[in-house]
Amino acid sequence: MFAFSEENKERIPQVLAKYPTKQSALLPLLTMVQRQEGYVQPEAMVEIGKILELSPGYVQSVASFYTMYHMTPTGKYIILFCINISCQLNGADELLNHTAQKLNIKVGETTQDKKFTLHREECLAACSNAPMMRINDDYYEDLTKEKIDQILDSLD
């Protein structure tokens, strides 16, 4: 059973007020759910549909279109590794494999302690400092194996 937190219940009218139609607030509400739960479960899509007067199927079609929304539980830290051409040319494949080996998981998996989830991302729009990855909302650029180890070890 999904329910918005009390804090988010209070924020929803403020979010809806920012848009000309309440249906336009779909992405912000999906983001709100993901930040609250770590992923967007079917029950949340039903709740969002009720608020926005959209079918759950429509909400799911939008949520599944964007790679930034996760439909299954994730780790505390979601690592998105950019694999676009600039990152590829600067060693992203090797660094992604290094990260997976360090975490002892495959791409798309979550560590057993639920700390990290590792994904590929087509583009994170930071080509000038490739290779790069995003962990939750933070960008890490000009990556090396040593820098990745330091970043991952610093996260509690």
Automatic annotation (TrEMBL):
SUPFAM superfamilies: Thioredoxin-like. Its cofactor is [2Fe-2S] cluster. It is an enzyme of class 1 (oxidoreductase). One of its GO terms (biological process) is inorganic cation transmembrane transport. Keywords: 2Fe-2S, Iron, Iron-sulfur, Metal-binding, NAD, Oxidoreductase, Translocase. InterPro entries: NuoE-like, NuoE_dom, NuoE_N, Thioredoxin-like_sf. Binds 1 [2Fe-2S] cluster. GO terms for molecular function: 2 iron, 2 sulfur cluster binding; active transmembrane transporter activity; inorganic cation transmembrane transporter activity; metal ion binding; monoatomic cation transmembrane transporter activity; NADH dehydrogenase activity. GO terms for cellular component: catalytic complex; membrane protein complex; organelle envelope; organelle membrane. It comes from the Bacteria. Its EC number is 1.6.5.11. The keyword rRNA-binding does not apply. [2Fe-2S] cluster binds at C82, C87, C123, C127. NCBIfam families: nuoE_fam, PRK07539.1-2. PANTHER family: NADH DEHYDROGENASE [UBIQUINONE] FLAVOPROTEIN 2, MITOCHONDRIAL (PTHR10371:SF3), NADH DEHYDROGENASE UBIQUINONE FLAVOPROTEIN 2, MITOCHONDRIAL (PTHR10371). Belongs to the complex I 24 kDa subunit family. This is NADH-quinone oxidoreductase subunit NuoE. It comes from Candidatus Nitrohelix vancouverensis. The gene is nuoE.
